Amino acid sequence: MAATKIQGAAALVLSLALGGCASTPKGVPQGNFLPQSVEQQWLAADTLRQLQVLYLPARTRLALAQPTTDPFGAALLKGLRTSGYAVQEGAKAAQGTDGALPLRYVVDQLGGGLVRVMVTVGGTSISRAYANQAAAGPWMRKE
After folding, report:
1. Which residue, among 53, 34, 71, 33, has the nearest Cα to 121 in the 3D structure?
2. Which residues form the signal peptide (predicted)?
3. How far apart are CA 110 and CA 115, in angstroms?
4. Which residue has the higher pLDDT, 3 or 58?
5. How high does pLDDT run on average in the chain?
6. What whole-number distance in Å separates Cα of residue 43 and Cα of residue 26?
7. d(C-alpha 88, C-alpha 94), whole Å
8. Cα–Cα distance measured from residue 75 to residue 116, given in angstroms and rounded to the nearest whole number
9. Is 80 exceeded by the pLDDT of residue 67?
10. Within 13 Å of residue 78, how many CA atoms lie on the same side as its CB?
């Protein structure tokens, strides 16, 4: 029992350290790599709350060039627009010519039951690990 807790804690610390220092440059996979069984709307809602802390709605324009047909992306996009963000999608967003901040995300599994959400807005990335549909640590921010 104690060994399992130590292994879980070690995995959490490692994932947060790696997730907080990671960025998503062009060419690196982005999108959703989670099975449908994971509650992705909750993950998107938690991500939206953190984005609202860092980027003011109604004052921030975002450009989301990647497709948002997955459950996380669709919920995040809907939440962003409902909250007052101006969000461009598709080809116009990929051009990035109007001053909108590019937004990318990666949602994947780290192993050991952990899920990682990493969102990059402009040159800043935030990431957080989750275990059993609960946050497994604080949001990490890298500028």
Report:
1. 53
2. 1-22
3. 6
4. 58
5. 82
6. 24
7. 9
8. 16
9. yes
10. 11
